[in-house]
Structure of RUN and FYVE domain containing 2:
Amino acid sequence: MTLRDPMTMERANLLNMAKLSIKGLIESALSFGRTLDSDYPPLQQFFVVMEHCLKHGLRVKKSFLGFNKSLWGPLELVEKLCPEAAEISASVRDLPGLKTPLGRARAWLRLALMQKRLADYLRLLITRKDLLSDFYENSALMLEEEGAVIVGLLVGLNVIDANLCVKGEDLDSQVGVIDFSMYLKNDIDDYRSEERNSQIASILDQKNYLSDSDSLSLYVSACMYVQLAIAKNNIIKLQEENQQLRSENSLILLKAQQHLEVAQGDVSVERDTYKQSRQGLDEMYNEARRQLKEECQLRQDVENELVVQVSMKQEMELAMKLLEKDIHEKQDTLIGLRHQLDEVKAINVEMYQKMQSSDEEMKKKNDVISRLEEKTNQITATMKQLEQRLQEAERHRTSAEEGTRRFKLDFANKADSLQRQIEHRERQLQQLETDLKIEREWRQTLQNDLDRERETVAQLSTEALQINGLKKEFHRLQDENIQLKTICEDQEQALEELGSKLSESKLKIEDIKEANKALQGGQVWLKDKEASHCKLCEKEFSISRRKHHCRNCGEIFCNSCSDNELPLPASPKPVRVCDTCHALLLQRCSSNPT
């Protein structure tokens, strides 16, 4: 028995889970006959399975915060491949509650499903394997043939209407765990839904003929009417089948053999097209044989199916009513889109008028610049004088720092030598005290040696006097040390005052440079046509996100990145500045309050 590649087994398992999830979602949605919302369990499990499929083989990227593994990177490529997906990406970036790349990817999947373009977007993505190789390993699901199979299965979701509230949902902290209990059900339901799957396939084939985006509204209405006709035909067929079910008990074995032959044909076709998924095809073959055995038992359950067919008839009638309601809603949305187009045209006319007024203001500013060139020459002369003074102050500062460093080294050496002498004297004093105690204990027994001990005591007294003299000298050295410390502190304070003066002079130079830059601001004023994104947050400008010039640096920002007003040297009145210039000007004002 040969060992298979673990990545191949993972791809086969994910493909089978995607088939079960998509099939169960379509069947449950058609049986419900209503618009799906975020709390619908099969829909939640579908998003979890798609998240696992997109994460398979994803490369881990290193950053200064650690390791980053997110599927938001490959999904952002869809915006470059398909311009229609730019609206979804912009909506995801503007959602206030999303803080992580994983939450943005989950929101993108939900918006693409509501737009019924999830299969189209992923088909464009898997065709560009040269771009996906930067995000996925070589044996990832998105780079292999299993990814194309899953994208083909996603086309069937276009018959489902989803109404998901992405703004209020916490997508960052959700745990993506697959619930296998939803798929452990009786396979008899699969047999009963074969005709329904063939009807859905016919609808999807009609959808492939409508590739032009301008005919999207015609396709929606036509699809709804086709579904109504199919529902009516199903009701008629169900009434005929109720009379023929008892006569079909003898033909079930023949049908089972036909299903087995069809399953074998499907296995041979998939073996030719998907050579790398042989184990998955073997499992499908075994499943077909198991279905054959189960269909042999259907003869006993035919009478129970009669009751089920009656209930299905009632559900189809309810589905017809809901489809008629959806047709009216689609027509209302088309009318609303036309009104929005008229409003956009009016806004474009206003923007053209404002652009003409801004051109006239630019001509006036060019005249002012010619008058201010003479003043800039005078300011450059004063700047040169200030720079010479700054260089002289820096030379004085370096010489003072060198003198203090030498003084500290000499003082430290002297203090260490005196400390060693004091420790030696203290050890001698302790030894003498111990000897004195021993002599006092043996005084009564050693009276004959009293004279000798008196001489030693006299010697000890002289040494004690010497120690007292050393202590006085130590106190004198401590006083000198304190005086030297005070002198050093005074010098350090003088250096700090000199540094503060230097910083003030540098701030004045920066203010003069900023004033010069403000006087020459007309030369670096960025044009509106040259900026398509905000320089700070890099968001794209649109009708709702307007362009604003910073009156300090001349760059173009959005409203949220330039919602500040401060007076500048060129204009005493408060004007609009960006966040970066606002923080820089406030820092200068706080360091130089005068």
